[in-house]
Amino acid sequence: MARGINKVILIGNLGSDPEVRQIPSGQTVANFNLATSDSFKDSSGNMQERTEWHRIVVWGRLAEICGQYLKKGRQVYLEGRIQTRSWDDQKTGEKKYATDIVCSEMQMLGGQGGSGGGSYGDTGQQQGNTAAQPQARPQQNYQAVPSPAPQAPAEPMIENDKDDLPF
Question: What is the distance in angstroms between the CA of the first residue and the CA of the last residue of the chain?
Answer without folding.
Answer: 36
